[in-house]
Amino acid sequence: MHILTPLxxxxxxxxxxxxxxxLVLNGVPETTEWTSxxxxxxxxxxxxxxxxxxxxxxxxxxxxxxxTATVAAGxxxxxxxxxxxSHFGPVQFYMAKVPDxxxxxxxxxxxxxxxxxxxxxxxxSPLTSGASTWPAYQKSQVEFTIPKNVPSGxxxxxxxxxxxxxxxxxxxxxxxxxxxxxxxxxxxxGTPGPLVAFPGAYSPNDPGLRWSYYPIxxxxxxxxxxxxDGN
Length: 231
Description:
Largest sheet: 5 strands, mixed
Low-confidence stretches: 1-14
Structural class: mainly beta
Number of domains: 1
Helix content: under 10%
Oligomer: single chain
Order of helices and strands: HEEHEEEEEEE
Strand content: 25-35%
Number of strands: 9
């Protein structure tokens, strides 16, 4: 029994991956995978991105998009995590406006085009590695509100779950991410920013990509820019 337990734990860890393959529009999930979400390279393995300097940090894309969802500014938009977010860490949402002249299905979001629209990080004190600290942990859906002042138009919306369970050393964090194609209606005249690039927004040495089990971390700040204030 004592011999098998580490093997079982190892197998459990290997299987504890997930993907974001469906949008949630005002609380209602899409019925099929990869409809408005660009299919990711982990569509069969559910594995994460481990190098923050890789172009996979943009959308982890396996194939071009096929559909575009419509959402109004101020509405709730989310992603289904399949099977669930099985590692603790922050979940963040970025948006990138697709140029009017570009095809949303094939547009490559390179360069400083992304702004952070929302972040689900830590709550309470003291910090732990459990659900009491990380509100997104073990959830099957994560959502945010499209900023009311975001300009109308077509966007890529990027969800990112940063798994910290193996992040006691540099390079241990795992990023589970994907990009959805949406058209925002009824928007405002805000100027989203600051704009960042993927790769480029994160460094392997960012404190937000590390987690200390001992001594337990006393504070945490997710990597990347500040959430856009909506102005």
